[in-house]
Amino acid sequence: xxxxxxxxxxxxxxxxxxxxxxxxxxxxxxxxxxxxxxxxxxxxxxxxxxxxxxxxxxxxxxxxxxxxxxxxxxxxxxxxxxxxxxxxxxxxxxxxxxxxxxxxxxxxxxxxxxxxxxxxxxxxxxxxxxxxxxxxxxxxxxxxxxxxxxxxxxxxxxxxxxxxxxxxxxxxxxxxxxxxxxxxxxxxxxxxxxxxxxxxxxxxxxxxxxxxxxxxxxxxxxxxxxxxxxxxxxxxxxxxxxxxxxxxxxxxxxxxxxxxxxxxxxxxxxxxxxxxxxxxxxxxxxxxxxx
Length: 291
What we know:
Oligomer: single chain
Radius of gyration: 26 Å
Distance between the termini: 70 Å
């Protein structure tokens, strides 16, 4: 009887202690894993970024303002900040050292549970943790899609991507953002023809409810979250992309000029003004998508 010849690939035992972990319980206690405790000095300071939902741990030089590096310590202020960010306790964090600041930065480990088809995540928690990613994608991409529809598409992509995520893929946050951008770009394609065929004031959608028009892509600000100085710089850079004729028409449109009045002042037909406006809209979309 012939014996089967096996070729095994052997693996070293995985050491979970090497992971840098921390958690905050319902009791308001911050608990540090052995791995992170071994890297921290005697006194530490703890912070929390409510927008990005990040924990920060750094060395503390002032004993009156810092905490002792121990397995568990009271963190009622931290717990309150986490709750005010819309999150529920307990929470677990996976930390890494930030080269720029020297801080240990902790990302939230989303809750999940095993199902027959894989891992399932708490949808409400995901939407809270990654709200800043959702906002960034919505405001940076697909300006020709109405903003409410953009947000709905991105939220749907977030949930779908999380359901299909596997731990051997990319970082969860990177995977979710990549999938959200891909889905929104795909859904936005159906609006492209309207920039060539629709009139300036005609609603892009014909459902009788949406009033979003080509003129809105020219007049409405889509830079949500960028401060005033940077916004002015972006506008100046965009104007440099236009021809002299386009800049003149663009400014008259922003001032609320009527097509007939713009056509009279420019010595052209209203159809010419519409074609120029369509061109401006396309250039604007390309410019801010690339920005």
